[in-house]
Amino acid sequence: MRLRLRLFTLSGLPILGISLRKEGGKMTGVNKDALPYQQKLTYPMLKYIRLCRNLTQEKFGEVCRIDQSVVAKLERGEIELTIGYESRIHQGCRSLNINEIELESIKRLLG
Fold it and tell me: Residue 31: its pLDDT value, please?
């Protein structure tokens, strides 16, 4: 089974087209590089952000609404830093008063 997904801007211009294949109940064939998304966080940044705010993995996870074990795996790079995780971490950073300028500075520092 093949599905075709097309997203459009408000002006009607296409953003992207994705071909998906359904195999064994799972969708496959998504080319992540074709998605209009640029990751703003990196694995080393997570631990740095947490330690700069003097937080345990458990407290940082509570703020970001992510389980402590997932925070640990993300910091070690054992699981993918998906858009969903990154979104939750950004929300947590906002609640910790960490702005985009500070995040960009951390990224350059660790770069």
Answer: 58
